[in-house]
Amino acid sequence: MQQAQISKKRKFVADGVFNAELNEFLSRTLGEDGYAGVEVRVTPIRTEIIIRATRTREVLGEKGRRIRELTSLVQKRFGFPENSVELFAERVENRAACAMAQCESLRFKLLGGLAVRRACYGVVRFIMENGAKGCEVIISGKLRAQRAKAQKFKDGYLISTGEPKKHYISEAVRHVLMRQGVIGIKVKIMMSHDPEGKMGPALQLPDNIIVHEPKEELPPMMPQQQEEYAAEEA
Q1: What's residue 126's pLDDT?
Q2: What gap in Å lies between CA 66 and CA 151, rounded to an integer?
């Protein structure tokens, strides 16, 4: 997005629109391949777009054909000069902790005709079995009858406010176009603490209390034993 000198406000708005449109395009194109977000890095030489997905092989395509097609589409749509934009695929290490991937998984389960409750409980169980601290799945719309309603499926411990929410909560929303109408899915996952910062945030929860094991203490001596001990010392 090389343009003439523009004001800071316009630049932030333009970057936001670019990120939103790119994310929407990739989520529609790569939804089946476990698309889990995008990161844009702008360097003086080129713009790098890193696509995070659970199945990177499908994103790359046969001999990298699909990623080249996506690069060409992005370049033409956003008016990048030739060879100034490059797309990379990055594999998501723990797909159970990625709300986007789980949302897409639930979406395809519902489109495949699986019962709502069974699909939701399956996703919740999979998330919790893979080391998450807590999760919540909200599904709303015309689920069985003509009347729309919302259902919540919750497990574990889940925070909803404060600074730790920014680090610990992964959240995603998807819309499923079913025959009876549109169904909305919202998945919230609370990741567990990881000191290395790989499988979860390295930042410790502020209200987390560590209770240490008591130290080994010698039994208190009786006055008589103390006198004997003093006599031995002398």
Answers
A1: 92
A2: 38
Which pLDDT value is given to residue 64?
Answer: 83
pLDDT value at residue 224: 65
pLDDT of amino acid 3: 55
Task: Select from 172, 22, 13, 1 the least CA-distant residue to 87.
Answer: 22
Predicted pLDDT of residue 222: 63
Q: Is the dihedral of CA 62, 89, 125, 116 positive or negative?
A: negative
Helix (H, G, I), strand (E, B) or coil at 111: helix
Residues of the chain with pLDDT under 50: 1
Pair 38, 30: CB distance under 8 Å = no
State the Cα torsion 82-84-89-92 to the nearest 10°: -150
- Tokens encoding 41: 């890095």
Q: pLDDT value at position 221?
A: 65
Token pair, residue 181, equals 């109408």
Pick from 154, 126, 35: nearest CA to 87: 35
What CA–CA distance (Å, rounded) separates 150 from 133? 24
Q: Where does residue 233 fall: left (phi above 0), alpha (psi -120 to 50 degrees), or beta otherwise? A: alpha
Q: Which of 119, 164, 113, 159 is nearest to 137 (CA)?
A: 119
CA angle 175, 176, 179 (to 5 degrees): 140
Looking up tokens 């609370």 gives: 190
CA distances from 130 to 7, 96, 189, 196, 208 (A): 46, 6, 11, 17, 21
- Say how many C-beta atoms besides its own lie within 10 A of residue 109's C-beta: 18
How confident is the model at residue 10, as a pLDDT? 92
pLDDT at 80: 85
